[in-house]
# Entry
Amino acid sequence: MPSTVIFKVIFCLESLVAMLQNGFLTIVLVREWMSSTPLVADRIVACLALSRFFLHGASMLSNLLAFSGFCYQANLVGALWDFINTFLLWLTAWLALFYCVKISSFSHPIFLRLKWRISRLVPRLVLGSLILSSVSAIQTVTGNVMVTQLSGGNCTAFKSLDFWYYYLTHGVLMWLLPFLLFLLSTLLLVFSLYRHVGHMRGHRSGRGSPSLQVHRAALKTLAFFLLFNTLYFLALISFAMENISVQSHWYWTKEVIIYAGISLHSLILVVSSPKLRKALKLKC
# Structure
């Protein structure tokens, strides 16, 4: 059908653009990483961009293999996608937690203690995320092998049988925990910044002061961060609960919707960072 072809083309173009964006982010941040000691947040963003680069690549390869009828190969690539996606969600959660702890003005003893320790904890948290993602991928491979044997290698039957085993048990649990941590951290940070902006406006700064403008820009960036990642998570869960054939145009429509949020957030990261904007201008 023409609509299926159109959405497949949009998905491929969207994925290629996102890979270029995240490849650019990775190169700039890794180059700075090698030349000097980077900020902890920049390290997380570099890992985030690299993970998104491979996520789009794995998604394109898995979809093309499934559409061509290579179900077994598509399922193996799908397990790689699951590893990257789980790791990506945890990285997003740790980035939100890091910003929340470092920037928020809460005086609770837990926050004050974390402020001093979060930078040293981040490498351990990332390592723990890699272990959890590996467990997730192993469980996916095991389930895929079992379901492929039961379905006789049929892609449509595979999706039908795989639904209850994977998406509603493994997928939701593996994705829900990092998303809730991300949501809580981001909302706390937005609340803290909003309260701080109100305090600055009422007591010290005028509406056009540079400090107030910086805080407003941070709030806007956080709002986009919250919006795109929430839409990504909700799209993953909602579309995972639908048994849609890879031959259907609705399948490719949902792929376009799911990965639109990642592409837009990568663009926001480039636009909102003076360092990345400067590097982009030099490249252009």
Summary: The chain is about 90% helix and 0% strand. The mean pLDDT is 76. The first helix runs from residue 2 to 35.
